[in-house]
Amino acid sequence: MGTATHQPTVSGPGWTSLLTGVWMDRHGVKDNRFIGGRFQTYSHFMRRIKEVQPQAFCASFTDWPPIHDFIADGSRKGDVEFLDVKFTRAPDAARHFVDNPEKDIEVRDAALKTLSDSDPDAMFVYFGQVDEFGHGAIDSRASFSPDSSLYLNAISHVDSHIGELLRAMRARPRFAEEDWLVLITTDHGGRGNKHGGDSDEERQIWLAAQGASLIKEKLLNEATPQTALVPLIYEHLGIQPKPEWNPEPPPSPIVIEPKPAEAKKP
Ligand SMILES: [Zn+2]
């Protein structure tokens, strides 16, 4: 906090950091409008995988469309699509947020199909309902709190979706010869019905990780920031990142920070 990499606990900057491996001072995404995103310079990790392993099969599934519309499409070189499967389910505009649990089921089923029909080298799967329940958008009684049974219920639903994906992964005919790295995380926590601020409840998030290439002691004993996931993926795939994938950021303009008491809550 208080440095050039300090960024709000908002999904635009959060998912951009998780998928590009750099902070806001480099990727340029400050909020969910994605204005000023520098995806051509700091690209989605799957575009980088394709750059060095053109035969790799990359698949991405989400019911939060900006992940594809901005982070993935913004990372394309010209019109060249680097995602072999790109499954987007937007919540219906008239029922915004309300049908997120159903969209999560569609996302899960599409990901299950790819796991059984194809040989993916990299997959990304996003489920939206935990965030939406936290906001109280689906049921006004819910909040980002362990005291909210509706919130815990949403977590259980997503947990069972992930369980099905892991079962499908282990049921692959050649699973014994395959070498999978599994990373499960979220992009922010929450407080009440909101997030975006600097509290521990918003900033401290968890990572569940499994894979032979992981160094357990390092993950358990050191802070693992959002930007650490892409390097773990490259290491697992044997990809040596090129220096031009992560150049020095442009000098940041002088920003006069508002006093904490006046800081605007997103
Ligand atoms: Zn949210």
TrEMBL record:
Biased composition (Pro residues): 244-253
Region (Disordered): 240-266
Gene3D superfamilies, alphabetized: Alkaline Phosphatase, subunit A
One Pfam short name: Phosphodiest
InterPro entries: Alkaline_phosphatase_core_sf (IPR017850), Phosphodiest/P_Trfase (IPR002591)
GO MF term set: hydrolase activity
Domain of life assignment: Bacteria
Official protein name in the record: Putative AlkP superfamily pyrophosphatase or phosphodiesterase
